[in-house]
Design goal:
8-stranded antiparallel sheet, 403 residues, 9 helices, 35% strand
Length: 403
């Protein structure tokens, strides 16, 4: 398969597309606020927080869009009262089933006793429709914690994902460690087979295509965390209809749990409880803000590249899909492990496309045009030869192989 791609690119004769990820939703810049709702309910994690709406957030200076970057702040001026410290929780209007989610942050809430920021995904019926925690941590934590939460019957990353405990994995920067490097990019790929999360710090280490129109995560190297589905957890049975969420809460079931607060000597020395500290020390939360440079959600797109139009003096060629039998779409179990055969050596006329599918849904589309190469499949490798002019036949035969 890879050899075929190399031949086509080298000869420069066949335009084709990698049928992979394409932008589904771009939240970047001024569009961001229109694509989220501002939640104002009581915090479901029992945090000492008062979530406010968009109008109040603007009045209090907790919300801004600066040169395309969206800034989401928690209050760092007032002694808190009532439900708790004013802050923001945003939930996307769109919901997703599978995709690639890429967020580029210049800043995330910095470390402070009592703070609990997160960027995550959640379904409408927790925990039955799942939760995907992409960025999360509390207090003085320096390493990100990624966690999956589900109902019963799902074990990922070596542990049960049931409800509040979830199945966690650590990796990537968090808090001050993240901010001291001017931020970075987290990318999450969610398929039927697995949920994978990558972290790339700013400073030249991010893949050049990561926020492009067509990113390719197969080229990004090993993920920071992989939650591999299988017999112990069928991903599509436990994760559905996920909304994106940004929030910064305080204390609550994690940061403010008595055993968490008392075990941290730095925080425990500041106040007898998390709530006491968060209420009385607004200055501690001057760094409790998100700066979102970009947020994009991609979905798989299997559309073939546009065909070249035929000359006005020549009839158009029939599409390849009408000439090849259905068996010419070949499924490959692993990217480098090829199986299957073309039913018989088959001739076809210019035009149309051949699709080779690599589970779980990655596709490569070879578009045959007037200047196409002749591609021959042999047992050992793919080979390409310069094509002749329009209306000549191209030949496809032999066994499927590759390297």
């Amino acid at each position: 398969m890879q050899s075929l791609i190399s031949v086509l690119l080298f000869l420069g004769l066949v335009p084709f597309t990698l049928a992979g990820y394409r932008v589904q939703d771009d939240y970047s810049g001024d569009k961001f606020l229109d694509m989220f709702t501002f939640d104002t309910m009581d915090d479901p994690t029992h945090g000492y927080v008062n979530y406010i709406d968009q109008s109040q957030a603007r009045r209090e200076g907790l919300l801004d869009v600066d040169n395309g970057a969206v800034i989401l702040r928690a209050d760092s001026t007032n002694v808190a009262s009532g439900r708790g410290r004013n802050s923001l929780r945003l939930t996307s209007k769109a919901k997703y089933n599978h995709g690639l989610i890429v967020v580029d942050l210049a800043h995330m809430p910095g470390n402070a006793c009592g703070v609990w920021p997160s960027f995550w995904m959640v379904g409408p019926q927790w925990p039955d429709t799942g939760e995907i925690d992409i960025i999360e941590g509390v207090n003085l934590q320096s390493e990100n914690q990624m966690t999956m939460h589900t109902n019963a019957g799902c074990s990922l990353a070596g542990s049960s994902c049931l409800a509040n405990k979830g199945c966690p994995a650590k990796g990537g920067a968090f808090g001050d460690t993240f901010n001291n490097n001017n931020g970075g990019i987290y990318a999450t790929e969610w398929t039927a087979a697995a949920i994978k999360i990558w972290f790339f710090p700013h400073g030249g280490q991010s893949p050049p295509d990561i926020l492009s129109r067509a990113p390719d995560p197969t080229r990004w190297g090993p993920p920071t965390a992989t939650f591999q589905g299988g017999p112990n957890c069928k991903i599509d049975s436990h994760f559905k209809d996920q909304h994106l969420v940004f929030d910064t809460t305080f204390c609550g079931d994690w940061a403010g749990a008595p055993d968490v607060w008392s075990r941290d000597p730095t925080c425990a020395a500041k106040a007898p409880s998390c709530r006491d500290f968060v209420r009385d020390h607004p200055e501690a939360f001057r760094e409790a803000f998100w700066t979102v440079k970009a947020l994009k959600v991609y979905s798989l797109d299997s559309a073939a590249a546009p065909q070249e139009s035929a000359s006005a003096n020549e009839p158009s060629s029939p599409p390849l899909s009408s000439l090849l039998p259905p068996a010419s779409t070949i499924t490959i179990s692993q990217p480098n492990s090829h199986s299957g055969r073309i039913p018989t050596p088959t001739s076809f006329i210019d035009g149309g496309a051949i699709t080779v599918t690599v589970d779980p849904g990655f596709k490569i589309t070879h578009t045959v045009t007037a200047e196409a190469v002749r591609v021959t499949m042999t047992a050992g490798r793919w080979s390409g030869l310069p094509g002749r002019r329009r209306r000549r036949r191209r030949h496809f035969g032999g066994g499927l192989g590759g390297r």
